[in-house]
Design a protein that fits this description.
two-stranded antiparallel sheet, 346 residues, binds zinc ion, 3-stranded antiparallel β-sheet
Length: 346
């Protein structure tokens, strides 16, 4: 909100005219609307492709619609990235056409000295050209960099593509920074810094995602053979004995055909042992509303998340109603330890 006030003041100082100050405010607000429309371009395509866009951060040079997850398909990223500049490419001729109809075809800095309606529209047309061109510079993480990354990813894979796009982005950032400093354009120098760090941050995100990808629940779960199960008819003393003397903490409850009915956890068993109620069988104690997971589910994205959300230390792994194993907090912990070791070798 400071920007319109700043330019209003700046324009008023230059011209001494209130109208010019008002024009400056209108131009800045219109600029924000153009940036916003650019971001909506990204969001709209992202939503069409089924990706969530949680928030839009508006920067003076262009917004940043952050995607919660990077698109899995490189082509999707290209589509989303190109949609923003495309909005500006569509808007620019509209502004120019109306300006032309109003009889204006020369450029005036309307932020400094105000201008006619035609001149303002012409200026906005120029701004849209600038937004499109500037964002399409292949300086990652700007739109052009994303297009480059997406196109490269189809050939060399996401990690390598991001590395190349980041390097190109950092090269541009470096050039912008030097140029910005030499020409006294501090805004450009600032943008350069933003691009530089944006590039390396994104590089890490992709690397991490690639390392985490591919592991499924079945890769690390305790298989059914290694899992001690109980039936609802087991008596309480037996499971208590298993908890105290065995290595397993939580027990899936299954029927004769191996279908999952519920689970009894270590905490519940120990609490029951100390409660004044006398429990006869597992049936009286077991939890029937237990979250389960498929053996094909992603280990970190799904397994870890469901464990966290449920607060359980183990999840029954179920395929078409039948128990096939157990995924414990320790399984996930060991897998992530291995992953971190591998990450250091990169
Ligand atoms: Zn954009």
């Amino acid at each position: 909100m400071l920007l319109p006030i700043f330019f209003a003041f700046y324009s008023y100082q230059n011209t001494g005219s209130l109208v010019a100050a008002l024009v400056a405010v209108v131009v800045i607000l219109a600029l924000f609307v153009c940036v916003l429309l650019h971001e909506f371009g990204h969001s709209l395509v992202a939503q069409r492709l089924g990706l969530e866009v949680p928030d839009i951060t508006l920067l003076p040079i262009g917004g940043l619609a952050r995607l919660k997850v990077l698109p899995e398909k490189p082509v999707d990223e290209v589509k989303i990235a190109i949609a923003g500049p495309l909005v500006n490419i569509v808007l620019a001729p509209i502004f120019f056409a109306v300006a032309f109809l109003l009889g204006t075809d020369q450029s005036v800095n309307v932020l400094e000295r105000g201008g006619s309606a035609g001149q303002v529209l012409f200026f906005l047309g120029l701004i849209n050209v600038f937004l499109a061109v500037f964002n399409l510079i292949p300086a990652f993480p700007m739109d052009g960099g994303r297009v480059l990354r997406g196109l490269l990813a189809t050939r060399v894979g996401p990690v390598r593509a991001t590395d190349i796009a980041s390097a190109v982005g950092q090269f541009f950032a470096f050039v912008f920074f030097i140029f910005g400093l030499l020409s006294g354009n501090l805004l450009l120098a600032l943008i350069a810094v933003f691009i530089f760090f944006g590039a390396s941050g994104e590089s890490q995100i992709v690397r991490q995602r690639e390392l985490m990808r591919g592991l499924t629940v079945s890769d690390v779960m305790g298989t059914k053979r290694r899992t001690e199960t109980v039936t609802p008819y087991h008596n309480f003393g037996q499971v208590l004995d298993s908890v105290i003397h065995g290595y397993q903490e939580d027990f899936p409850v299954v029927d004769e055909s191996g279908r999952l009915l519920g689970m009894v956890t270590r905490n519940e068993i120990l609490a029951a042992a100390h409660s004044p109620n006398r429990y006869g069988t597992v049936r009286e104690l077991m939890k029937t509303e237990v979250p389960t997971i498929s053996p094909h589910a992603d280990l970190f994205a799904d397994g870890y998340r469901i464990l966290q959300e449920s607060g359980l230390r183990a999840l029954p792994v179920v395929e078409s109603g039948e128990l096939v194993g157990m995924l414990t907090v320790d399984d996930v912990g060991q897998a992530s330890l291995l992953r971190d070791l591998r990450k250091q070798q990169f």
